[in-house]
Amino acid sequence: MCPSPLRRYQRPGYRVGNVKISFIADYRSPIARQWIDHVAIQHDVHVISSYPLPTSDRGPLASLQVVPLGLAGLAGSNARQTAGGARSRPNRPRPWHLTSRRLGSSLPGLRRALGPADAMRQSRRLQHAIERTEPDLVHAMRIPYEGMAAARAVPPQIPFLLSIWGNDLTLHAPANRLMRNATRHALERADALQCDCGRDVRLAEAWGWVPTRPSIVVPGIGGVDVNVFHPGKSTLREQLGLDPGVPIVLNPRGLREYVCWDSYLEAIPVIAARRPDVHFVCTGMSESAAVKRRVADLGITTRLTLLPPLGHAAMADVFRAADVSVSPSVHDGTPNTLLEAMASGALPVVGRLDSVLEWIEDGQNGLVCDPTDPDSVATAVIEALENARLRARATTINGSLIEERADFGRSMDAVDAFYRTVIQAGTSVVSDKAS
C-alpha cells in the first residue's frame, strides 16, 4: 500500500508546535521562504507550493506538497534563481511603456489572462492537499494566484488568512474581468488580511474585504534583518576597482514589468554631465541583451556596472556601498529594497506612490521623482548626491523608522500573535459568514 501524501513528505523528528499552519505560497521565493521558515521554528508548518520544486527541499517544514497554480509551470520555465538565496527574477526584460495589456504579448499578460481560470481548475486538488494537513489556519501569501485558488479550496471551518503584496490590487486585479472577479471573491472569502502597506487595507474594502474582520500591516517580507542590512564598510568599490571616494548610485529593482529601468538608464548621461565622478550599479540585469544594447546606445558602458540577481548577504554589501538607491517604479506596495536601502544608509529616490510615501517624506528622509521621466529621475539623484546634509539626516531618520516599524524580529512576533488571534476568532468568523 502506498503511504499517505502527508506521511510521504513528513520530515522525521520535526517538532510540533502549538499551532498547525498550512501556507499556500511560492516556496522557491526567498521572500516567502524567509517568512515561512521563521514561523516553522515555533509551529507545525506545512507548505503547499504553487510552483514546482523538489519535495525533498523542505527545510524545517513538517510537510511539503506541490500544486502548481496560475500557469506556474510556464512562469517557472522562464525564471532563474542563483545559489545562496538570490531573489528570483524573470529573464524577460520589458520597459514599462512597452508592456502590453493585450493577450499573449508578454508572459505576465498571458498569466493574467489565463491564470485565474487555471487557479480555479486546480482548486479541488488544492482542497485535498489542505485536508491532508488538517491545519488550524491556512495562509495564502498573495492574491494571484494562491489566494484565488484558496478562496475556493479552504473548507469553511478552517480560518483563511490572505496576504496582499505589492501590486495585487493596483496592477493585477484591474487587468481583466477574470482577474477582477477572482480578486473580489478571494477578499470576500478571507477571514483575515495581512498587507505590507496601509494603502492596501483601504483598497481591499473596495474589492469586497469586510473591514470588521482582523487585519495586520507588516512591511515587506516581515521586515528587515538589521544584522544583515545596516550601514558599514562594503567590499563593492574594491571589487569594481573604484577609488574609495567615488559616489555610487544603485538601482536594485531588476527587470520587473512595473519598474522604469529604461528611465534610470536614460537619466545616467544627464547625471554624469553634472557629476562625472559618479558610478552607477544595477542588480538583476547582467544577463539582459536588451539592457546591454540600451547601455551601449547611451554610451554609458564605462559608467555602469550590471550585476546578476544577488542573495541577501551580497545585496547588503551593495547597499552599504551605495550613496543613493533609486526605485523607479510605477506600482508597488512596500518594496523590500526600499527598506533594505533605508536600513543600510543609502538615500532613497522613489516614485510618487501612496504606499511608498508611508515611509518617505520628500526632502526629509528621501526624494520623490516621476519614475517615467528621466529628467525627473536625474534631478532627484543630483540633489541627493549634492546634499550631504539631507543624506546624513535621512540615515538617522531611516534607521529609527526601520527599528520602530520594520525590524524583522518584532514584526514576526506581531505576526505570531496575529495568527493566534485569527485562530481563536475562527469560530465566530465562521458563524458570521454562515449567517
Describe the protein's architecture and organization:
By secondary structure, the protein is of the alpha/beta class. The protein is 44% helix and 14% strand. The chain is built from 18 helices and 15 strands. It has helices at residues 5-9, 30-40, 72-76, 107-121, 123-133, 143-153, 168-172, 177-189, 198-206, 236-240, 261-274, 289-298, 312-321, 336-344, 374-386, 388-405, 408-424, 426-434; strands at residues 20-25, 44-49, 63-66, 79-80, 89-90, 137-140, 160-164, 192-195, 215-217, 248-251, 279-282, 304-306, 324-327, 347-351, 367-369. The longest helix is centred in the last third of the chain and has 18 residues, at 388-405. Residues 1-16 and 76-105 have low confidence and may be disordered.
Give the overall shape. globular
Number of strands: 15
| Sheet with most strands | 7 strands, parallel
Give the end-to-end Cα distance, rounded to a whole number of Å.
43 Å
Main sheet: which strands, in order across? 3-2-1-6-7-8-9
Uncertain spans, ≥5 residues at pLDDT below 50? 1-16, 76-105
Structural class: alpha/beta
The helix count comes to 18
